[in-house]
Specification:
InterPro entries: Hexapep, Hexapep_transf_CS, LbH_SAT, Ser_AcTrfase_N, Ser_AcTrfase_N_sf, Ser_O-AcTrfase, Serine_acetyltransferase, Trimer_LpxA-like_sf. The longest helix has 34 residues. Helices cover 42% and strands 11% of the residues. It has nine helices and 15 strands. The chain has 308 residues and is of the alpha/beta class. α5 runs antiparallel to α7 and α7 packs antiparallel against α8.
Length: 308
Amino acid sequence: MPPAGELQHSPGNQSNDTQPSESEATAEIFAAAADAEAAGSWTQIKAEARHDAEEEPALASYLFSTILSHSSLERSISFHLGNKLCSSTLLSTLLYDLFLNTFTSDPSLQNATVADLRAARVRDPACISFSQCLLNYKGFLAIQAHRVSHKLWTQSRKPLALALHSRVSDVFAVDIHPAAKIGKGILLDHATGVVIGETAVIGNNVSILHHVTLGGTGKACGDRHPKIGDGCLIGAGATILGNVKIGAGAKVGAGSVVLIDVPPRATAVGNPARLVGGKEKPTMHDEECPGESMDHTSFISEWSDYII
């Protein structure tokens, strides 16, 4: 993607009373950079769609209606999700307006969408283009729909949020409660069977594979779901239960069952999960963000009980 251009500001002749504060100026710079990145992403997506339409004429009409006929990434995603999630009683036009109004009213959602696109493209070797992620990656689409349902939930529009949540679960086989808090740069790889409970919190730049459960331990009320730190990697089929904390940069191996906290940059594997290196002095890996490297097996050389 093309990098954001340099931002230039003329000094102007404003008095001190009307000049923006330092924090406001910083926020404007970050917003402008994010807008430039989103614009660059959209330009590349349209170029990819044009190329695919030329290479595969059978898809030309589909690509035109989902990508090429739209003026922005937000409009394209809103149209695509509206058509994916509509039903005989939940019309695509209603969903399109709902998605578009939500995305355009909150710049942070737009930034998160671009970060999620980049996460899939960079981390998944099977992802051949940004446009294919936008059109075909149900993990990406489920996350974008969740961002809208979460926004509705925070606005006390809970019946609509739950209705949208239900459609996402039906269509994508991904069950994320609207109240769950999810950061940006998230990859749900394959995504089928992912379950994320009501009070779960997921940080930024986290990668989660299929059939992962972030669940509760029973009928306990209140804050009862896992908290996943920035940069974590959660392997396929892992089950993390209760209000436990997975520290920043930690790894949870495939098929593991985690019931207690995992320290930052540690690795938990097995059922029940154990820490590589032992509970008293767990081995800390060098990676700060295994959610980006997607390295699932580096712990094996130090895992004395791993036997074939």
